[in-house]
């Protein structure tokens, strides 16, 4: 089991690395999901996610998450073949948390060097984005 601290990591790079590990059969726990970074212009990101959340209806969907852990899970799910048994089985081995639960507080966190930002000028923390689209902690 790998415990990954998402603080300061780029969302897309983190999601792709985690998806590859899940398909190999690893069990992965991600903590501090709200401190993950999304690259791009702030206003563009807010408008993009507001459009996604507002799409569909309450009864038929599509349902898009507003919480940071849900958005990170959804990004990882998008990189898995989740409509097939192999992808569903891999997705079950993923746990994502806001903050650090007591059971994972003393466990050493794995560092993912591929997901660290490289010369980002425009970015947004996932927690700020979620507050703009309607999540209240």
Structural commentary:
The protein has 137 residues and is an alpha/beta fold. The protein has a single domain, classed as Alpha-Beta Complex (Ribosomal Protein L13p, Chain: A), CATH 3.90.1180. The chain contains 5 helices and 5 strands, in the order E-H-E-E-H-H-H-E-E-H. A 3-stranded parallel sheet has the order 1-2-4, covered by helices on one side. Helix 1 crosses helix 3. The longest helix has 13 residues. The radius of gyration is 15 Å and the shape is globular. The chain starts with a strand and ends in a 5-residue tail after the last helix. 28% of the residues are buried. The model has no long low-confidence stretch (mean pLDDT 94).
Please give the structural blueprint.
Blueprint: E1 2-5, H1 11-23, E2 28-31, E3 37-39, H2 42-54, H3 68-78, H4 85-91, E4 94-96, E5 123-125, H5 126-132
Parallel strand pairs: 1-2, 2-4
Antiparallel strand pairs: 3-5
Name the descriptors.
Ribosomal Protein L13p, Chain: A; 3-stranded parallel β-sheet; alpha/beta; two-stranded antiparallel sheet; 137 residues
- The CATH architecture can be named as Alpha-Beta Complex
Q: Multimeric state of these chains?
A: single chain
Overall number of strands: 5
Tell me, briefly, the overall form.
globular
Series of secondary-structure elements, N-terminal to C-terminal: EHEEHHHEEH
What's the total helix number? 5
Strand order of the largest sheet: 1-2-4
Tell me the radius of gyration.
Answer: 15 Å
Average pLDDT confidence is 94
Instruction: Classify the secondary structure makeup into a structural class.
Output: alpha/beta
Q: How far apart lie the N and C ends? A: 28 Å
Unreliable residue stretches: none
- Please give the share of residues in helix: 25-40%
